[in-house]
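L-lactate dehydrogenase (Cytochrome): structure, please.
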Amino acid sequence: MATGIHSSADARRLARRRLPWMVFDYIDGSAGRETGAARNRAAFDALDLRPRILRDVSNRSLAVPLFGKTAKAPFGISPMGMCNLSAPGADMMLARLAARENVPLVVSTVASTAMEPLIEASEGNAWFQLYFSGDGSGTFKLVERARAAGYETIVLTVDVPEVGRRPRELRHGFTMPFRIGPRQFVDFALHPRWSLSTLFNGRPEMANFDRPGYEFDRAESRAKADWATLRRLREMWPGKLVVKGVMDVDDAVALRAAGVDAIQVSSHGSRQLDSAPPPITALAEIRSAVGDDVPLFYDTGLRSGEDVVKAYHQGAEFTFLGRILQFAIAAAGEEGLATLWDILKSEASITLAQIGKTSLLDPGRMNDL
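Here you go.
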């Protein structure tokens, strides 16, 4: 069947119609007055790509190297909590996509499917995203569990010392796991297809904490994490270590010295600090500061394949997509996800043709763009 999806904006529009208001605003909302999200969008729109003519661009590739492998697409899947709120089985849909495209699914600490079945369904194409929380005892237990499950890459998210205030989700009384009161009951009643499907499949829970000895409070302070925390993680983790949520040049330089394997420029999808600068502008500054030897990843605000090319042009070596994939799932399930993914790849490929390129490899350091 036709999904009605021709862009990420279509996926968002359809998801808004089909999801309960509480769920949509949890996925879509940003911090504060959401001016940070708007400024990041404006920064993307202000970036130009120069069209070039009469170049043979008939044989184009979107494949890029990533930690010794080859990703079929120039973007992977960001860690997103409670994805099964968008539709039952959403986590597994993303895992199957990661397997097909040989791209990383970054499994959230607060995923609604446990880390073990997700790395299996993704055929090993899964990284584990880690939050430091409380005194860290539970955090490092998760690290050991991820290692036992076969994960080779940890993504430490460092931009949430305290959970940012997101008024849209707060107005709905959103909690994780969510509780149903009178307001939520009315909301769910007005969206019967989602409600019946969720009721039939069971309420989504934070699946990595469904066994004795594992606990997590989303609202718990994460403010104790410091450079000693990073050193401890680096010492105990033999695989690749990515630090996500970096916006400052000095922090990036210090991370390079600390021996991390990659730095991910991100403002947490504009969900943390409303006044944060647009991360797409920070990306070029950080690339200039750390040089060409440090893998630099990017997420936040990517809405099209053209945006992805712009991020590579600014110095990214890999990018990650987030909420737009959940919108596609909410709009049309696994078919919607596949449709949007193919659209994004097509947009990126067409953009390369327009600017006279056949590959995304190092376009940010080519003088003729």
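Notes: The chain has one domain: 8-365.
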